[in-house]
Amino acid sequence: MTDDPALSALVAHDLRGPLGTLLVTTRTLSEEGLSVEDRRAAAGRVERAVQRLERLADLLRVDARGTGSGGRPPEPPWPLDVALERLVADARATQPGADVGTHLDRGCAVVAEEGLARLAFSSLLEDAVQGRGRVDVLCSRGDRDVRVEIRRSAPSVVTAVEALAGRLVQSLGGGLERRCDASGTVLTVRLPRAPD
Amino acid sequence: MRLLIVDDDADFREALVHWLSRRGFAVTALGEGAAALGSLDDPPLPDAVLLDALMPGMPGQEFLWRLRLKPGCAHLPVVVMSSHGATEGTLPPGTAFLEKPFEPEALVGLLRTDRGAAKGEASGARKDRSRT
User: Fold this and answer.
1) Residue B31, Cα to own-chain centre: how many angstroms?
2) Which terminus has fewer CB within 10 Å in chain B: N or C?
3) Alpha carbon of A115: minimum distance to chain B alpha carbons (Å)
4) Cα(B24)–Cα(A164) distance, integer angstroms
């Protein structure tokens, strides 16, 4: 699966967590006398657990495939600020009630393969909104790169999804840094900015 | 029987609360170690703690160490729930272990054993997934 022991441990954790939710919840759903509200809540847990597993599977597939350019032609600029607006809306949809704010500079097109970049950012955002507390997404335009900060008001442990998305970002020519303390977690992603 | 669940995975926590409440347990569930330790300042103490090993802020090991220093909690039974296998000898006395994912019936069985957690019945049922 991966030759990185630390990543393998994270993958095991990210697999076993949602599997635990699925196992307990399916046992619950097989019982008599559940209210409509209980069934609805259980269905929501199942849906979110499946989404977590799907996200992990997508990232593992891309990670195993490798992301070298392989002589492909240069990618057209990808408007990251516009894409983030949509991805944040999608992430909100997966976690109703999530407290997510945005501050997105305009003109933040990046040079990156759109499919991979979209997968990396959607994974990071959905991972963030599934945690506790508020999430703020900031996108700023620098001279040579575009910086995206995903700030969480709660501390968090590194997940396999985050680690794999980070590897994906690095393969696109960018970078990912993580800071975590009692006041929260900040992921900073950089990608090369497309010329105007 | 009163239980305290400490796990940062909200969905897993909610699933366990629901399962255990329907079986007559009085369950309090919290998402972080510091808040859970604080909740132990107010009586009554739980009869057992279900603890996630990997949590942000305060990892399970630190929680256990601090828990044992609290008045009345030195011998409180704890079940550590982890996605990583426990290494024999790494868990302190009075601590049982269940590897996620585990059968919820196995957890209930462990809790209803005569202080099973306190005996440190580590992981005996974790692979027992006989479907009914």
Assistant:
1) 13
2) C
3) 29
4) 41
pLDDT, one tens digit per residue, over A42-90 is 999 999 999 999 999 999 999 888 766 555 666 788 999 999 999 999 8
Structure confidence by residue, pLDDT tens digits, B90-114: 777 778 989 999 999 999 999 988 5
- Rounded CA-CA distance A127/A118 in Å is 14
- In contact, A103 and A136? CB cutoff 8 Å: yes
Separation CA A121–CA A118 (nearest Å): 5
| Residue for token pair 């069985």 | B109
Helix (H) or strand (E) holding A42: helix A36-65
Distances (CA, A) of A189 to A47, A64, A78, B56: 28, 22, 15, 21
Nearest to A182 among B8, B57, B129 (CB): B57
Q: Cα–chain-centroid distance for residue A164?
A: 9
